[in-house]
Amino acid sequence: MLTLAVAAPASAHSDLEDASPGPGDDVATGSTTVHLLFGEGVEDDDEANQVTLEGPDGDAVAVGAVSVVDDGMGVCVATDALEPGEHTLDWRVMSVDGHLVQSRYAFEVSDGGEPADGAACEGADLAAPEAADAGGIPTPVLAGGGAVLLAAAVGAFVWRVRSDRRPGAGEGDTPA
Ligand SMILES: [Cu+2]
Question: Which phi-psi region, left, alpha or beta, contains residue 85 (left: φ > 0; alpha: ψ -120 to 50)?
C-alpha cells in the first residue's frame, strides 16, 4: 500500500471518473475491451500504466498493454473474451502531475449483461492480450516511487547531520 500512501497527499491526480466495464456493472459475455476515463490527464508511460484482470476462478485473464486514448484522459486495453462470472480489475496509471494512482474494482460478466461500451477504444491500435500471472499489479519499483524513497532517506541523513552539529542540542530540541 506504499503507492496509495505516496499518492494520497494531492487530490488533483487521475481519479477514475468512468469505466466500461465499470464498478458493479454486469457486462455481456464475450466483451473484449476495457475503457477507463480519468478526471485528469494520464502520462503515456508503458511501465507505469498497467491493467490486470482476474476472472471468476481466480485465474488471470489475458490483457494487452495499456493504450492512452481520449486526448490523454483515458486508457483502453484489449482482453480475452470475458467468460461469465465475477471479475476483479486492477488498474494503475501515471497522472500528468507525476503521481502514480491505482485502485481496483469488481464487475460481473453474464450472458444477459449489457455489451461493454468500447466506442472510445475503437480508433485505438490496441495491443493483443497477453497471458499474465494472477494476483493484480505488484508493488511498483519505478522511478517516481524510488525518487520519493530516496528523498526521504536523504532528508533523514541531512537532519541527523544537522542535529549532530548543533551544539548542545538535546532531545527536547529535535523536531518531531
Ligand atoms: Cu496527484
Answer: left
Question: What are the two backbone dihedrals, phi and then psi, of residue 90, each rounded to the nearest 5 degrees?
Answer: -105, 130
Sequence spans of domains, the chain? 2-137
The predicted model scores a pTM of 0.71
2.60.40.1220, 3.40.980.20, 2.40.50.40, 3.40.50.2000: which CATH number matches 2-137? 2.60.40.1220
Could you give the strand order of the β-sheet that contains 74-78, starting from the edge strand earlier in sequence?
A: 16-20, 33-38, 74-78, 67-69
113-126 pLDDT, tens digit each: 999 988 999 989 89
Ligand 1 centroid–CA 67 distance in Å is 20
Ligand 1 centre distance from Cα of residue 15 (Å): 9
Distance between CA 102 and CA 37 in Å, rounded?
Answer: 13
DSSP-assigned letter for residue 130: B
**CA 119 / ligand 1 centre spacing (Å):** 28
The CA 13 to ligand 1 mean position distance, Å, reads 3
Give me 128's grid cell. 493483443
Per-residue pLDDT tens for 42-96?
A: 999 999 999 999 999 898 999 999 999 999 999 999 999 999 999 999 999 999 9
